[in-house]
Amino acid sequence: MTVSGSLAPLREPNFRYYFLSRMVNLAGSAMGGLALAFAVLEVSDSPSALGVVLAGRSIPMVLFLLAGGVIADRFGRALVIQVSNVVAGLTQLTVGFLVVTGTAQLWQLVVLSAVNGVVASISFPALASLLPQLVPRDQLQPANVLMSMMRNVLTILGPTIAGLLVVGVGAGWAVVVDGATYLVAAALLVRVRVPPPPARVDKPSMVVELREGWTFFVSTTWLLVVVIAFCVLNALQSGGMYTLGPVLAKDTAIGEGGWGVIMSSQAVGLLATTLVLLRVRLQRPLMWGMIGCSFFGVPMIVLGVHPSLVPVMIAAFAAGAGIELFMLGWDIAMQENVPDEMLSRAYSYDALGSFIAIPVGQLAFGPLAVVFGIREVLVVAGVAYVVIALATLTAPSVRNLPRAEVGGAA
Predict the structure, then answer these.
(1) Could you tell me which residues are beta bridge partners of residue 136?
(2) How far apart (Å, rounded) are the C-alpha atoms in residues 106 and 277?
(3) Number of neighbours of residue 211 by Cβ within 10 angstroms
(4) Which residue segments constitute the domains of the chain, with CATH numbers given?
(5) Residue 159's pLDDT is what?
(6) Residue 401 in contact with residue 284, Cβ under 8 Å?
(7) 351 and 334 in contact (C-beta within 8 Å)?
(8) In whole angstroms, what is the distance from residue 316 CA to residue 304 CA?
(9) Residues 198-234: tens digit of each pLDDT
(10) Longest dimension (CA), the chain
(11) Closest by alpha carbon to 272, among 157, 131, 145?
(12) What radius of gyration do the chain's Cα atoms show?
């Protein structure tokens, strides 16, 4: 793939304005989590208070995912994203205003975070499924890679910028900046012109549309197998790498600073892989994606066997590269092989199945580490991660899923 071909999606007006909208949106989101955390701590110094606010957002995100898929397929993805940006922006601006004026109370932040969580849940399937409507089919890979590259850069820079804002002008104003980015993103999205979904003659209810999505989900073997695998993989990842990993780092020579370097190494692996995938066409997207996914078990194994900075950094870099490979493979598999009228609902069932066990890992791995030891649990989790990821390849539909034939506009 040439450089010109890699950048071709940006010559499509719809994709260009969507790209700019998401860039502004993700820049705010990359800062928003840190800014909100410190804003809550200005209201209450209690760690449990912060946990309540965060849970107030995450629980509605899980509960409304399926509704988001139906809404996006019924009313149009661009419209759903635009309205969601406006509502999310207003909630963040309200949080920022309350904190800046010193009038914020904890219950207000919980309610506003819950509204934000509902909006994020409803917009997620639309965000995941809009891209095929913006570029010709033969540009899906470079379009996805460009989006991923932008997201990875902002993930690296966003928290640092947020920290500077919190120190410089205060957490409340940092949240205000986040809220403003949502409104700017909504304004940019006005320039994205995609036809609304055709009205269905039978006018089904939301329950019927959910049932249609479920039928497609359980009858599509590659989709079902990978989502079931990720239900377990995400529990292992959240409980092992992201819960026990920092604890072990703090208790060893790695230290808190070293753990930050390890996380940065993973981000660099993500970013480096996007540069490669701009030039290399990914054939058999799920086969390579699940092989790449298996790399994420390696840092947990290395942490358990030899918890020192350099080996874990190298493993984290490889994990980042592998996860980027999976994310591209998964998006291409979904966008090329799921009917457009079903895509948002397919993504919503994917997200629900993949996310629902994350709290299980977060809650279970601490007690397991007390009983069996942190390093032992990490090794078992890492090995299990690799085995489960590669086991999905025993399903022919996962292993052999091809790229769709290159044709005209999506």
Answers:
(1) 409
(2) 45
(3) 12
(4) 3-193 (1.20.1250.20), 212-399 (1.20.1250.20)
(5) 66
(6) yes
(7) no
(8) 14
(9) 666 667 778 888 899 999 999 999 999 999 999 999 9
(10) 65
(11) 145
(12) 21
Query: What is the amino acid identity at position 364?
Result: A
Nearest-5° Cα angle at 112, 109 to 113:
80
| Residue 240 DSSP class | I
Query: pLDDT of 23-48, one tens digit each?
Result: 998 888 777 766 777 777 777 766 56
* pLDDT tens per residue, range 348-389: 899 888 888 877 787 788 888 889 998 999 999 999 999 999
With pLDDT > 70 as the criterion, what percentage of the chain qualifies? Answer: 91
Q: Which residue has the tokens 């769709």?
A: 404
The whole-angstrom separation of Cα 147 and Cα 274 is 9
From residue 131, alpha-carbon distances to 94, 119, 352, 409 in Å are 31, 19, 20, 12
Residue 157 reports pLDDT greater than 80 = no
Which residues, 6 or more positions from 61, have their beta carbon under 8 angstroms from its beta carbon? Answer: 117, 118, 120, 121, 124, 355
Q: What pairs with residue 409 in β-bridges?
A: 136
- The model's pTM is 0.77
Reduced to 3 states, what is the DSSP secondary structure of residue 104?
coil
How far CA 162 is from CA of 21, 26, 101, 118, 147, in Å, comes to 19, 13, 20, 24, 21
Contact 374, 244 (CB under 8 A): yes
Which 8-state DSSP code applies to residue 282? -
Half-sphere exposure of 257 (CA within 13 A, CB side): 1
